[in-house]
Fold this sequence. Notes:
The complex is a heterodimer of chains A (314) and B (328).
Chain A: H1 2-34, E1 48-52, E2 58-62, E3 68-70, H2 73-82, H3 114-119, E4 124-128, H4 134-142, E5 147-150, H5 155-168, H6 172-193, E6 201-207, E7 211-213, H7 219-226, E8 230-231, E9 243-244, H8 246-252, E10 256-258, H9 262-267, H10 269-272, H11 280-283, E11 287-288, H12 292-296, H13 302-313
Parallel strand pairs in A: 3-4, 4-5, 6-8, 6-10, 10-11
Antiparallel strand pairs in A: 1-2, 6-7, 7-9
Helix pairs in contact in A: 2-5, 5-6
Chain B: H1 2-17, H2 25-33, H3 40-73, H4 86-100, E1 105-106, E2 109-110, H5 111-130, E3 132-133, E4 136-137, H6 139-163, H7 167-178, H8 190-205, H9 207-213, H10 217-222, H11 227-249, H12 255-267, H13 274-296, H14 304-321
Antiparallel strand pairs in B: 1-2, 3-4
Amino acid sequence: MASYHLYTSVTVSKNLSVFLSTFLMGLCLLALASCESKPAKAPNQKSSYTIKDDLGRSVTLPTQPKRIMGLDAAMTEMLFAVADTASIIGRTQNCDYPAMALTKPVVNNYPMDYERLLTLKPDAVFATEGIISLEVAAQIQKMGIPVYFQAFDSVSDVLRGLKDLGRILKRENQAAKVVNSLQQKLQAFSKDTAELQEHPKVLAIIWKDPIYVFGHNTIFTDKLRYLGADNAVSEVMAQQSPALTREYILQLNPDVILGGTFEKYDKEFFSLYPELKRIKAYQNKRIYEVTDDLMSRPGPRVIESIQELKQVLR
Amino acid sequence: MLAVVLLLVFGFFLGLKVGSIETSYSLIWEALTHYNSEDSAHYSIVHLRLPRLLLAFLTGASLAFAGYLMQALVNNALADPYLMGTASGASLGASFSLFFLTEFTVMGLYLPPFFALVGSFAVTLVVVILGSRRGQLIPSQMLLVGVALSSLLTALVSLIMFLSDSESQLKSVVFWSMGGFEKADWTNLGYPATALIAGLIIFQFLQKHLSVLLLGAERAETLGVEVGKLRWVMLLAISVVTGFAVAFSGPVGFVGLMIPHVTRAVLGITNRFNLIFCALAGGLFLVLCDILSRLLYPPAGMPVGIVTSFFGVPFFVYLLRRKNYRFS
């Protein structure tokens, strides 16, 4: 009996020491891993200046960035419209426009591939508000790469954004050219809609379950304004793309729904939510498909997006 | 008991009043007694708010009932209806369909609940097979297998979330995993209702046996309860009732753990109305949580699982701190 006790206490202490030493080794490894590495020196930081981006963050940029990149599809389109395309050194997995973007090396942005980004040695990277998180931006800044955010709540924000990029990249003339041509087209839309009789309420559905839509405080509302139409969601909510209940949509009673063809919506959306068949858009079969990228990416193709909306609404 | 019923009636009227369209109690009464399908307020009250409230009630009642049985089955105060991996199986099933199947409906069948049901039953079956020996359920082993499997399945759901390539898809999965009643309609209330009512009737007859089981399996055997058989019936009831509740509402947490304790604290351990009270109280709790979620975060309401924990935990802790409460 005594020997049994002795045996168990020896085994217990053996096990305990094995456990403790493993635990301590683990702790040491953790400590090593969490040692903060010094931020990498950003290239070309000889002459730099500090400005505020659209989020009011202070960003220190090189006076003439030579190696730049957009961290999301909308920003890549913005950069290709203004920058010298040779200075754009990469794209993300979602950037597929313009065609030339496809020739650039890919950096994954979800989850962000920091190592790959670092190997491309950008002087500065550009991001769109709401797509890239501030947390990710902070991590990139730690590596010594400045992150400049742009925010687009309206069509004029896109024009302003293009001009800002022109200034930052020392490409003012190119930016002015693009902006002027966009402005002329916008004026044409405004003239077009001046004598419109109907002002349809349009609901743009992003996702069916739960039902996410383009909220009021989005560029979508502003695009509709050029066409004399209204976003069916007139209330400003906390989220840019709020989730709506069936009851709320019944109350909105939109004239038009965007998100897919009538046949597709009849089969999928309205079989999932048969109560919504009472709304005008369904009764009058005014349910249309629009190009996802044009809807979801604020950028220089905003005119194409308005053009497409005009086609489906008329 | 009477207080719970009165509160329920009040809760239902309040729930019918809260929504995007302004409604008065007289309008609600009118919609319920002289329904006019052309009136959009009437339509909302009868076809959207009422099914939603009923689904909230049925889910709460089902989970509380299943939780009561589960705690008796494994004789453990921490047991809840999801112990056998029901919730994680359902989550995995629903997440799978939301992620891999672009079509939400096939031949009019809405897929996520269907997959959730398949997932929950499949996992329960595995836990039962691994948690029994020679046809005898071993509660302690079942409990451990359930917990282990749950964590594996939760990891798989996390993997699906990680692989989601769109924010909306991710939100779908997350939204589902936190529970909600937005998709309630008259056609899908029948399943959980039938399962719950059948369960309540069967166990009202077995009420005495349940109370004895809380004294421990050996004592129950000596008092003439066929513990082995009773356990199998309980297990079947728990999995069916929980499976249907989870399939339509997502895994709402905390109700199944908390409400059985509330029941025993209020009525005692051996009261013959325990199960009915437990179901009513569970239903009432979720109805109130759903109303609160819509008031706090209009119009869609926040996932109800957040609200249940927020308001349930403090109350639960207060209850446990009361000196005279004992589990068994």
